[in-house]
Design a protein that fits this description.
By secondary structure, this protein is α/β, with parallel strands linked by helices. It has one domain: 3-Layer(aba) Sandwich (Rossmann fold). The protein is built from 5 helices and 10 strands; from the N terminus they run βααβαββαβββαβββ. A hairpin with a 4-residue loop joins strand 8 and strand 9. Helix 4 packs parallel to helix 5. The longest helix is centred in the N-terminal third of the chain and has 12 residues. About 35% of the residues are buried.
Length: about 180
């Protein structure tokens, strides 16, 4: 979270976990790192019930409705619109405890540093570029959810190649606009 826009690769670590969990290996590593008996989670996936049961068995974390979950996982098998539903439901914290906000972990087909979205804010020297292959209007929903600082949700994206990208609530995201030449 301290280096927004930096795409890191944890494939070496993910390849050491030999377990089929219905998610990308990098996502499984995130589950194992973040979840324990003290936190709650929600899963959006085609087989959400089975996946939640496995996560509970591995981490002892319990499920909760998305509105109260500490961590929300939107897996690659999720239905269209699940990412938007998760963003709308996610708890943004409150003024006394903004750090209690949800973190949403999202599986995406690909993460690259192509110039699709421009990232600015704390932890980014000038600006950073990313391309996140997802559907829907997640950027607008995230901006709305994070509109009243210090409230907001944080996002972690994972892809099948073991890449992860963290976007804390303080990171601003704008669409890269192709410039035009005046002649």
């Amino acid at each position: 979270m301290s280096r927004p826009g930096l795409i890191s690769n944890i494939r070496k670590q993910a390849d050491q976990v030999d377990l089929e969990a219905g998610c990308f290996p990098a996502t499984l590593i995130m589950m194992l790192m973040l979840l324990d008996t003290e936190v709650t989670f929600q899963v959006y996936a085609g087989d959400a019930g089975e996946t939640a049961k496995l996560i509970n068995q591995l981490t002892y974390a319990t499920t909760a409705p998305a509105e109260r979950a500490d961590f929300i996982f939107v897996l690659h098998t999720a239905q269209g619109g699940d990412l938007e539903q998760a963003l709308k439901a996610a708890y943004p914290g409150d003024l006394l405890d903004p750090h209690q906000a949800a973190t949403i972990i999202i599986e995406t087909p690909s993460l690259t540093n192509e110039q699709d979205w421009i990232l600015t804010g704390p932890g980014i020297e000038k600006e950073s570029y990313v391309k996140v292959e997802t559907k829907g209007n997640w950027v607008q929903l995230r901006a709305k959810k994070n509109g009243e600082y210090p409230l907001g949700v944080e996002l972690i994206f994972t892809d099948p190649r073991g890449n992860i990208l963290c976007l804390p609530r303080t990171t601003r995201i704008t669409k890269k606009v192709v410039g035009s030449w005046d002649m």
